[in-house]
Amino acid sequence: MCNFIFGKESNDKPPLKTMFSLFRENVRIALDAIKSQLLRTILTVVIIGIGIWALVGILSAVKALESNIAGNFESMGANTFNIQRYEFSFDNNNGRERQKVNPIIDYNDIREFIAKYDYPLTQTSVSFMGTSVAEIRYESEKTDPEVQVYGINEHYLDNTGSKVESGRNFTVFDIENNNKVCLLGSDFVSGLFKDDNPIDQTISVRGIKFKVVGVLESKGSSFGNNQDLTVYLPIQVARGIYTQANINYSMSVKVDNKDMMQQAQDDAIVTFRNIRGLNPIEKNNFGIVRSDDLLNQINDISNILQISAWIISIITILGSSIALMNIMLVSVTERTREIGVRKALGAKNSTISTQFFIETIVVGQFGSLLGIILGVLTGYAFAKGFDFEFTLPWTAMIWATVITFLVGVIAGSYPASKAAKLDPIESLRYE
After folding, report:
1. Which backbone phi and psi does 181 adopt, to 5 degrees?
2. C-alpha–C-alpha distance, residues 244 and 268, integer Å
3. Are residues 161 and 19 in the same domain?
């Protein structure tokens, strides 16, 4: 064993077991060397860890944010566009230009639009939020005043991609006849009704009785907003209960044929401009938003954040690689006599250089492990803080491991080469 460790010549290839033993011995020596210069090693590990922390933490947070927002925008439904008060856009004017105040989309607007918009193979859904602090009662049970109540028509679920888990959706008969029926989010099943089947049960909203005809599939939370704690009422019934002024309505148009999306959208713009009485030179005083446009904007933001994460981590890791090279050069100087003794006993240059390579790689992997742990914890805390779904950033973790390995190899190249080239006689004389 000792003959092999110190590099005595042999024409036979060492067996795999001997190679593993050599590697294990080199790692042990590396750990002993690290312990002898603990403070410098800890500082280097922390610097590397900060760079990896920035990379893994930001990428995991961005992934959680992207998945959540993409899921929410996909809930707009396939092949749909929304007509709403404002366009969805990010403020690029840094506040220098005041945003134009658009009029709300009131009930007369949507009623006239539905009457006039007749593009083939389309259907229009209408909705508005009556309140976000409703208290719902069922027999002797009641909810906390945190339930959202929406008024919708029969196309709302289909246009927004919502699914009925049990029961049925609203029908045209329910909407036109103002039936006292309702749809519930999935959280009511385990919360308000406990062991009872909610279908055909009666709940009370503002003292008015409603028959439950359907329960929706879970949609989760978004930015602390529980989408499964929602009651949906026929739109005319909801308008009779929530009569506050300046209610802003939302419209969503679904196009059966995706190839006809642009033409359907253009026709909707012309129709709504006529309803608003805009002349040809006036800009739209409303917004048109497509789900795919929103996703493209979110992807652009995610790409910017990911690039920022890489830049921050690369700059930090570059600094840590210099620190790692410095600590290994100091180590070579401090262990000059040890290197001379090993060479005098027959150690080859490759054996010496390999020893220092392993030391730098071990330090780098300690930094990688620290950074990955901190990054995952940061991403998890971010996801839980905003009620997002967290997933492990495997790609970032793999890249972190590879990057720190490369940093170890690059930072250890010069110190390892310097150690290997030391003259054994001069090294033995070193004090």
Report:
1. -125, 165
2. 28
3. no
- Give the ranges where 75-204 is alpha helix by DSSP (H): 107-116, 156-160, 172-176, 187-191
If you write DSSP's letter for every residue of 31-44 in order, what string do you get? HHHHHHTHHHHHHH
Are 303 and 405 part of one and the same domain? yes
Amino acid 417 reads: S
Q: pLDDT grade, residue 243 (50/70/90)?
A: confident
Q: For 344-395, what is each residue's pLDDT tens digit? A: 777 677 777 777 777 788 888 888 888 889 888 888 887 777 767 777 778 7
Rounded Cα distance between 277 and 41, Å, is 72
Which amino acid belongs to residue 115? Answer: A
DSSP 92-111: -STTSSPPP-PPP--HHHHH
Return contacts of 369-372, CB within 8 angstroms, 24+ apart: 370/45, 370/46, 370/48, 370/49, 370/52, 370/53, 371/48, 371/49, 371/50, 371/51, 371/52, 371/53, 371/55, 371/56, 371/400, 371/404, 372/52, 372/56, 372/397, 372/400, 372/401
Look at the chain and report how many structural domains it folds into: 2
How many H helices and E strands in the chain? 14, 14
Residues 338, 404 within the same domain? yes
Max mean pLDDT among 139-148, 201-210, 337-346 falls in 201-210
Angstrom CA distances, 355 to 33, 136, 234, 346, 380, stand at 10, 70, 75, 15, 38
Give pTM, 2 decimals: 0.62
State whether 219 and 129 are in the same domain: yes
Are 239 and 148 within one domain? yes
Residue 233 and residue 256 share a domain: yes
- Rounded to 5 degrees, φ, ψ at 105 are -90, 105
- Mapped onto helix, strand or coil, the DSSP state of residue 151 is strand
Tokens of 118: 């007749």
397 and 319 in a common domain: yes
Instruction: Look at residues 226, 255, 285 and tell me which one is the last residue of a structural domain.
Output: 285
CA 27 – CA 23 distance, rounded (Å): 6
With a cut of 50, say whether residue 3 has pLDDT above it.
no
In a domain, 356, yes or no: yes
Range of the domain at 272: 103-285
Strands 181-184 and 208-216: parallel
Looking at the structure, tell me whether residues 235 and 302 fall in a common domain: no
Q: What is the mean pLDDT of the segment spanning 126-155? A: 88
Task: Report the relative pairing of strands 136-138 and 221-222 from DSSP bridges.
Answer: unpaired
